[in-house]
Amino acid sequence: MEGAAEKVKPFKFVLLSMIPFLFLSGCFGKAELEQQAYVVVLGLDKADDNLVKVTFQIANPEVGSTGGGAAPTEPPSDIISFTASDILSAKELANSVVPRRLDFGHLQTIIIGEELAKTKLFHHIIASSIVDPEMRRETNLIVSKEKASDFIHANKPKLETRPHKFYAFMKQRWRDTGFAPYSNLNRYFQRLSSELFLSIYATTDKNETVSKNEVDYEPGQIPQKSGDPVQMIGSAVFKNGKMVGSLTGKETRIALFLRHKALNHTFVESFPDPVNDKYRITLRMTKPTKTRVKINTKKTPAEVKVTIPIRLQVFSNPSLVNYPTNPANQKKLRKSIKENLEKETMDFIKRTQEEFQSEPFLWYLEARRTFWTMPDYKNYDWEKKYQTAKVDVNYDVTIESFGEQLKPADIDKPGRD
To answer: Ranges for the Spore germination protein N-terminal domain (predicted)?
Structure first.
């Protein structure tokens, strides 16, 4: 009997070791690539009777890839729209037209028409779509001035064959320039309660204006000739899930500066020349450390003290005023930039207090730390207290360099030695 038991042990071991393969080698959820239609851009527009017009931009995987030579005449994507009660029902309805199964696994961008964004319906539509596991929370949110369907049809970037690449590259540019905020579904749901949420603002319609400050534009106002039709600059402002206004590129940069921790740390911008006001000086501004925010909720009104460290590098000096070797001129330049930044910042803060009656600077996180419990913080009502808060902003400005030249070159005049 003992010998028979010893022979059974190896058999049991082999049998037990094969059980995991029953779960690891299955093909229950397999899906062939050629059977999938990958939606890379989703558009949402307002329709009648609380319905929504959903636009799908479906990528053609054979165009723009390494094997793209097999389909040289095919378009890079297909754009199709449906009117339904929500996104998921429109997705199901699309399968009556599209022969492949629609897949949101590669969805990176959602375009919202401004008309829809200004209604309560938008939040109901976007919140109900999260039940689909394919809707990822890192998906970018962009508000278009025109209808989202018109925006998607008009956006034909010349340098990018595949449509999703355009938005992927623009996402990096937003972080580099600070012209637009970094906005996605996750940040939207985080900032639904009272505080302002900033979304990327864009358009393909042009209403060109010329401003001395190259960042003081909204989308469509940039004086552009030829090139891609899309302009993305500034922010769409959301409060309680509804768009309530917009910011220029300049105001968006200020909002990012005022946050304790921001993704953008380097900007290039021009300022009036304090010695010769006919010209502007172009500088690179860097923020070496975090913005320091101190909030006193014990006082009435509440006090907010903000210190923003700024380091400056002079890039361009068209007036040829001697700043590199003249300490008096350097002092004038530093003072002028400091006063300019502080005035623009205080004007913008006043606008948020009076017009939006809330703040997009994430200061509520600092105010919340001054209370022991969440009920105490909620009873304090930071949103209401912010409207009358006394805010003091100080830019700690330091000029690091004036370029490689020690002194700006001047033109020799006839008769000069």
So the answer is: 30-195
